[in-house]
Amino acid sequence: MAGAHVLMFPCPFQGHVQPMLKLAELLALHHLHVTFINTHSIHNRLTRYGDIQSLSASYPTLHFNTIADCYSFGNNTGSGDTTAGNIILSTTLHAKPLLRNILLAQSPEIPKVTCIIQDGILGSLSNDLASELGIPITIIHFRTSSPCCFWPYFWLPNLFKTNELPIRGDEDMDRIISNMPGMENLLRCRDLPSFCRPGAKGNLSIDWVSLQTQQSLAADALILNTFEELDRLVLSQIRLHFPKVYTLGPLHHHLNVRKAETNEANDNTSFRSSFFEVDRSCMAWLDAQAKGSVLYVSFGTSTIVTREELMEFWHGLVNSKRRFLWVMRPDLVVGRENDDRIPEELEEGTKERGFMVEWAPQEEVLAHKAIGGFLTHSGWNSTLESLVAGVPMICWPYFADQQVNSRFVSEVWKVGLDMKDVCDRDVVEKMVNDLMVHRRDEFLKSAQAMAMLANQSVSPGGSSHSSMQDLIHYIKSFGKENN
Ligand code: UDX
């Protein structure tokens, strides 16, 4: 059967699956055939907490398929080890034969796969697969983390050559990195991707992440979840090495705007791609709060804090006397005992001015008029969602790209404050009041200007809108050639 057909394969984490699903929906809105591959455990979570069945039912050309969880295989990686590092490593090692089986068992009812959009962090997976099978498939890498981190990942080997890496220890953390093109003298050692730190957590090394990033050079094109106006300087550097880059972001907003314009996707429903049970009770609480009075606090899907850090944040929030909505994921705090006593002043302060949920409808929360700031771990999806909503941020990065993102929030986009590597109740209190009161106008002005640029980029004639048209054209051109 003639036509284009895209197979999409994200790394199995919410922060990766979610923007890829948004892209899949955008492609399906353009009537492209898309097969989206999830691992069993991701598919189960999306079935349980998201709307994956309704999503599938709404688009006749969007198909879902599943493969086994790669961390359950033995060999080089520990079987059953579900740490983030092992999930990524085991997927790069074991997914290829599973994807091959899917490619070999294609239905004659729909066009054969002409293009693979693979999560870039998985390296050479699809290139190897296509050459093994000897079939012409266009390979596109989608890096779901930030471009301002993709670029350092790519450039890191050069920092060893100029002796700017390795980082020599704690006393070295404020040293400025001068030889990063497009980011000269911007990053300190502490702002580099977390894998650069001595004794970095997890089992992914700088060398490994950097090598995976270099593998994207062999792909036919690269997709980034950003917009030109946000990352102009970084993109011009990336394009010196990657000639075909599509900037389609912010993807969640891009999709919302397209769906608002079209009547084709049923009633423009926004489908949840959640991995946790959403508690909407916070929306009624927000409705009762004054405009711009609430700080939203959320650390994303996998950040963990110690009991001591929890107490510093909690005291700082209560002492700031500002209202707050806090996402307290059940697995957020390590070392917490059931009989841990919560100090009375925290109980009281929270009852008076706070609200806690285990998981919030974050996009909606950030768009609510009561929200005046966001204390975030600087995950790339959260950062983009905050930028789109025009909400200033306090950043407390945890790992990977978050260290770079938070530097850009404070020093490049100037839409917030970076609290990196500090967890102290007095600092929390001061930053909350700076963001929400003393420097509110300054941050709000730049955040709203950025939100306007984000909106323009996905509107007709905007940079991300045009880039999406180009991508569709590119994908369709291969559909024609192959049939
Ligand atoms: C991490 C990285 O930091 C990210 O940049 C990388 O690309 C993937 O891994 P994560 O912890 O998942 O990401 O954070 P983030 O990228 O911000 O994604 C979290 C998502 O969960 C956001 O889309 C956010 O809206 C959603 N969320 C979070 C909710 O819907 N409700 C909540 O209560 C909290």
From TrEMBL:
SUPFAM superfamilies in UniProt: UDP-Glycosyltransferase/glycogen phosphorylase
Keywords: Glycosyltransferase, Transferase
GO molecular function, one term: quercetin 7-O-glucosyltransferase activity
Keyword Ribonucleoprotein on entry: no
One Pfam family per UniProt: UDPGT
Coiled-coil residue windows: none
EC number, UniProt record: 2.4.1.-
PANTHER family: GLUCOSYL/GLUCURONOSYL TRANSFERASES (PTHR11926), GLYCOSYLTRANSFERASE (PTHR11926:SF1392)
Entry similarity comment: Belongs to the UDP-glycosyltransferase family.
Name recorded for this polypeptide: Glycosyltransferase
Organism: Vigna radiata var. radiata
